[in-house]
Design brief:
alpha/beta, 9 helices, 14% strand, binds nicotinamide-adenine-dinucleotide
């Protein structure tokens, strides 16, 4: 492994991606906070720097292959080879199946599934060269349970589970692990927006009461698991689905 380790977190400007970015910076990674929302990414990178860590924001739309390649080149020239990639950027959707248009379907697939494909293809050569790498894909517990009116979203997240399992087989011999964390019910701007639109079938508090650990997830819960999967100690864990959901799905 090279001495300096660079981590890329997509969708690092908010919620789960923000917590993962701050945690990896704290863990000692030079952290590239990628987001479509440049201001949000910059505020996360600045927060990490204020704590004495290394982090830089990059504006990238993960659904655009050329932008991803250019963005990761910029990361490389700032920090060196990319050895850790967290594919976290995602968008949600809520529509009756027969009302999902091609445009809505295509956009959610582009961000949630093609995004990780483009980012991973752009980062993996560095990991192969180093003989070490870590990829963590943020899927969703809805891929375990199914979710009404979210066929498009859940299809992308289930796709990411298959992506993880298959890629792990290919990259294991090269020293690279690939795992997925399917979060469930984590208190982020995405979850609160769904609550406000009445899409949760009850409030966040109501769902917390139905959750075995009796609270919503915190972005830090996902960051803790990601940090472990990225650590040296997790080198024998690959191709796995590591649920972090308060016991809502097993
Ligand atoms: N919050 C939950 O309970 C929950 C549950 C299951 C899965 N997830 C997944 O976790 C991930 C993070 O979700 P969150 O709740 O933190 O959401 P969030 O909306 O708070 O943050 C998502 C971030 O991704 C960025 N983003 C969106 N499209 C992008 C694009 N094309 N390119 C680059 N960045 C883009 C947004 O700007 C935002 O900063 C998502 O993949 C989501 O599907 C969340």
């Amino acid at each position: 492994m090279t001495e300096r380790r660079t981590a890329v977190v997509t969708g690092g400007g908010s919620g789960i991606g923000r917590a993962i970015s701050l945690r990896l910076a704290e863990d000692g990674f030079a952290t590239a906070v990628l987001d479509l929302n440049e201001e949000a990414a910059e505020s996360v990178a600045a927060e990490a720097r204020q704590k004495g860590h290394e982090a830089t924001a990059f504006k990238v739309d993960v659904s655009d292959r050329a932008a991803v390649e250019a963005g990761l080149d910029q990361v490389r020239s700032t920090y060196g080879p990319i050895l850790v990639l967290v594919n976290n950027a995602g968008i949600t959707g809520f529509k009756e199946f027969m009302k999902i248009t091609d445009a809505v379907w295509d956009r959610i697939v582009a961000v949630n599934l093609s995004g990780p494909f483009y980012c991973t293809q752009a980062a993996v050569p560095d990991m192969i060269e180093a003989g070490w790498g870590r990829i963590v894909n943020i899927s969703s517990s809805s891929a375990q349970s199914g979710q009404q009116y979210m066929v498009h979203y859940v299809s992308t997240k289930a796709g990411l589970v298959g992506f993880t399992k298959s890629l792990a087989l290919e990259l294991g011999p090269k020293g690279i692990t690939v795992n997925t964390i399917p979060p469930g019910f984590v208190d982020t701007p995405m979850l609160r927006a769904s609550e406000e639109r009445g899409l949760l079938g009850g409030t966040v508090d109501h769902h917390a009461d139905l959750t075995p650990v009796r609270r919503p997830g915190r972005p830090e819960d996902i960051a803790n698991a990601a940090s472990f999967l990225i650590s040296e100690e997790a080198g024998y864990i690959t191709g796995q689905v590591i649920g972090v959901n308060g016991g809502r799905n097993t």
